[in-house]
Design brief:
By secondary structure, the protein is α/β, with parallel strands linked by helices. The protein has two domains: about 220 residues, 2-enoyl-CoA Hydratase, Chain A, domain 1 (Alpha-Beta Complex); about 70 residues, Orthogonal Bundle (Lyase 2-enoyl-coa Hydratase, Chain  A, domain 2). Helices cover about 45% and strands about 15% of the residues. It contains twelve helices and nine strands. The strands form two sheets. A six-stranded mixed beta sheet has the order 1-2-3-4-6-9, with helices on both faces. Strand 2, helix 2 and strand 3 form a beta-alpha-beta unit. It starts with a helix and ends in a 21-residue tail after the last helix.
């Protein structure tokens, strides 16, 4: 069954595929693409399906309508008052902790994918939207886009990744100001501080450019791309010495002379190199059972 068939019929998301580039779109523009219950089941399932395939080499995340996303849908918060949460205080606290960890894991999946993830933002990217795009590899925005760490206005501490990832992408003082105030910051400010790679006049030109970049990334060795993402994520969370040692260990096991030869041969023959797909990311012991 193709990925298009596996990912058809989602209520909150739309899936498209161009060759080896996957494209996930938030698809509830009438509701400002808020993250409702459907999203929280469909999003991780879609990422796992894409990640399990060895044929996809880049993922673009975008949206429909005027705004990228207004963040968490209120119906999700309303569920906290449901009967399943009416427990003795310590057990309710433990259950809420597991609930937050489950939500976090949905965005953590972007980092664990073996492929580059490019986020393309138009209009507002609010609250949980920033949590999500912080976990992407690259971010692009229209000139009229804006971002808001909205949780402070709801008397909440942001808990799905913004406060952990954004300080590695922007200056600490700026992040603290944005988190403490909840003020909007523009695409231009985001680009100035390095949060956004590039801005575009409109959504159409942004999507053309982002899809072109995704295809360019997809044309390279998927094994080398996987290694780059693994090294960058590891280096962010470890010392330089630890990162270098891990890189040496990685190369000891992953150096691929066959693909190096193919890259050099293709360059001499003035053709595009041909690289094999990664093996599907599926359970090895049970896949034939």
């Amino acid at each position: 069954m193709s990925l298009n068939e596996q990912l058809a019929g989602m209520k909150s998301l739309a899936y498209h595929q161009e060759g080896q580039v996957a494209h996930l779109q938030f698809n509830r523009p009438e509701a400002l693409n808020t993250f409702n219950r459907d999203f929280w089941s469909e999003w991780p399932a879609a990422l796992r399906t894409i990640g399990a395939s060895g044929e996809i080499r880049a993922l673009v995340v975008s949206s429909t309508g005027k705004h990228f996303t207004a963040g968490m849908d209120l119906e999700v918060f309303a569920g906290l008052n449901g009967p399943e949460f009416q427990l003795e205080a310590s057990r309710r606290a433990e259950m809420i902790r597991r609930w937050v960890l489950e939500l976090q894991s949905a965005f953590n999946l972007l980092e664990s994918l073996r492929i580059p993830v490019l986020a393309a933002v138009q209009g507002g990217c609010i609250g949980g939207g920033i949590d999500l795009i912080c976990a992407a590899d690259c971010r692009y925005a229209t000139e009229d886009a804006f971002f808001t760490i909205k949780e402070i206005d709801l008397a909440i501490t942001a808990d799905l990744g913004t406060l952990q990832r954004l300080p590695t992408l922007m200056p600490q003082g700026v992040v603290r100001e944005l988190a403490f105030t909840g003020r909007k910051f523009s695409a231009q400010e985001a680009a100035r501080y390095g949060f956004v790679n590039q801005t575009f006049a409109d959504q159409a030109s942004m999507m053309n450019a982002v899809m072109a970049l995704a295809h360019q990334m997809a044309s390279h060795s998927p094994l080398a791309i996987n290694g780059i993402k693994e090294m960058l994520n590891y280096a962010r969370d470890h010392s330089v010495d630890e990162g270098l040692r891990y890189a040496a260990t990685w190369q000891g096991g992953m150096f691929h002379a066959t693909e190096v030869l193919e890259a050099m041969t293709a360059a001499m023959e003035k053709r595009a190199p041909a690289y094999a797909d990664l093996q599907p990311n599926q359970p090895i012991l049970t896949k034939n059972q």
